[in-house]
Recover the amino acids of this structure.
């Protein structure tokens, strides 16, 4: 009897596995082509993982499950209950970090917001609706952007040229190359090919590229990371007729305030002074500065200003101002007091607070072959003057609202939004333009073809052939189990006659005698039914 129970249990288990595998849940996401949406987010930012039905169906009474790599429980929702308000089972990595979008369920949107992403959050996520047998796949790539440092390394009035340097440090993936562009976007031939590579004392890799320019304007350096779009970029401005350099730096980063003679004169035994208005920023004289003995530095800059390593020997009095804030913005004057020459340099520092962009699909209409995309820009200093959507080839898309819709959130941060309708698959970019700041802040979202047509791939079809296939396999397993059971009974009976073994209840009749058994030498034949 025990063998029969084991066989029946095995049958039930195999049947459950087969039915589960045939329920339309993909086994493995083998490549990016199997995913529906690709999301890029910088480390430390919040990521919107998009998931919706493509139509405004209220999902408050629905069931859906978010998982990472088909194993980690990210977020589970069932008729108003989820991990934040009572349900258990969430992976510790995502505890208190995953939230529904306000008002999203009522509009058919099961997207979630994953806060403060790290490299460990990168991977493939699934959003599964079991009642609808529907799965959405999202690949999240967490990008660590390299830090760019742009500066004037040489100014030569006699030749009417300026040499610009761009240094890229760190980044994941590491940039494969650097590129300088003129104000109109033309690529400037580099002085080194490929870029010069090095490592700092902390083991962080860096690459650098220098170019020579002869015209005033804003010059841009781009660091391209393989597979990541758009490139990281920063801009430096070259002025005509004056030794003035404009530096743009994001709030919280370090700013290089460039000051150099333009010739390799050793400044170790010289003196120079850096001021912002009447504020003493940095003073150096024959090996002494504010960091090692000299007094008089403005309290705002104490411990925040340092010389570049090895710069003085090459005639470079540039300094690093760490952790810049809005209060650091303004014009700085550097005066070099050398024995044989005196040089003045003016530096205009602009500390930029970038807005945060959120891109998402707000409506997919297969019947009309179109998708509506939304771009929301929040915060920023200066506040963006406008938003712009571009096609994959850079063409501007006419907006549905002009000017962009403006609003304020609960903490008083201003935001603007812009929606567009697109009819072709591809990567669409939203740009937030801040007055006087270049380049624009940008982010990209990808639109897939099946969103426009309504087609979607399934692992197995849901038609009658699946039911026929499952029925065939279940019947076959049942027939094997029955024959195993008959074989076990017969074998027990034969063993009981031949070895005087203790008989079981299945081998005795009502009088206590053995039931008839097949002849001990007869072959036991398993009758497996024939299918066709």
């Amino acid at each position: 009897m025990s063998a029969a129970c084991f066989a029946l249990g095995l049958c039930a288990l195999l049947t459950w596995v087969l039915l589960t595998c045939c329920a339309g849940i993909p086994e493995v996401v083998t490549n990016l082509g199997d995913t529906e949406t690709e999301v890029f987010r910088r480390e430390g930012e919040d990521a919107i993982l998009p998931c919706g039905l493509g139509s405004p169906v209220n999902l408050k009474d629905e069931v859906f499950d978010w998982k990472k790599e088909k194993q980690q429980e990210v977020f589970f929702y069932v008729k108003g209950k989820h991990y934040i308000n009572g349900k258990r089972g969430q992976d510790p990595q995502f505890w208190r970090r995953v939230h529904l979008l306000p008002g999203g369920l009522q509009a058919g949107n099961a997207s979630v917001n994953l806060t403060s992403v790290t490299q460990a959050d990168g991977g493939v996520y699934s959003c599964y609706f079991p009642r609808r047998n529907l799965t959405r796949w999202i690949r999240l790539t967490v990008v660590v952007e390299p830090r760019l440092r742009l500066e004037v390394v040489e100014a030569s009035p006699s030749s009417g040229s300026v040499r610009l340097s761009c240094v890229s440090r760190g980044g994941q993936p590491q940039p494969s190359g650097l590129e300088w562009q003129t104000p109109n976007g033309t690529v400037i031939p580099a002085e080194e090919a490929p870029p010069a590579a090095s490592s700092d004392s902390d083991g962080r890799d860096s690459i650098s590229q220098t170019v020579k320019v002869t015209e005033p304007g804003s010059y841009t350096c781009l660091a391209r990371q393989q597979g990541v779009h758009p490139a990281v970029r920063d801009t430096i401005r070259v002025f005509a007729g004056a030794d003035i350099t404009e530096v743009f730096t994001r709030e919280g980063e370090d700013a290089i305030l460039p000051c150099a003679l333009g010739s390799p004169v050793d400044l170790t035994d010289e003196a120079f002074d850096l001021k912002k208005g009447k504020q003493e920023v940095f003073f150096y004289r024959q090996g002494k500065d504010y960091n090692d003995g000299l007094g008089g530095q403005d309290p705002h800059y104490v411990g925040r200003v340092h010389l570049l390593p090895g710069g003085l020997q090459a005639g470079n009095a540039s300094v690093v101002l760490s952790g810049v804030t809005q209060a650091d913005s303004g014009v700085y004057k550097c005066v070099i007091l050398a024995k044989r020459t005196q040089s003045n340099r003016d530096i205009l520092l602009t500390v930029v607070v970038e807005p945060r962009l959120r891109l998402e699909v707000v409506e997919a209409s297969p019947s009309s072959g179109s998708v509506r995309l939304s771009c929301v820009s929040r915060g920023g200093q200066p506040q963006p003057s406008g938003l712009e959507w571009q096609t994959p080839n850079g063409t501007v898309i006419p907006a549905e609202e002009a000017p962009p819709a403006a609003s304020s959130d609960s903490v008083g941060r201003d935001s603007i939004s812009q929606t567009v309708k697109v009819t072709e698959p591809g990567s669409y970019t939203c740009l937030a333009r801040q007055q006087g700041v270049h380049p624009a802040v940008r982010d990209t979202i990808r639109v897939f073809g099946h969103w426009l047509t309504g087609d979607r791939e399934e692992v197995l079809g849901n038609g009658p052939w699946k039911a026929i296939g499952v029925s065939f396999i279940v019947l076959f397993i049942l027939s094997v189990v029955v024959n195993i059971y008959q074989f076990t009974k017969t074998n027990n009976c034969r063993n009981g006659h031949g070895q005087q073994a203790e008989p079981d209840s299945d081998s005795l009749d009502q009088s206590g005698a053995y039931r008839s058994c097949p002849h001990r030498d007869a072959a036991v034949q398993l009758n497996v039914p024939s299918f066709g």
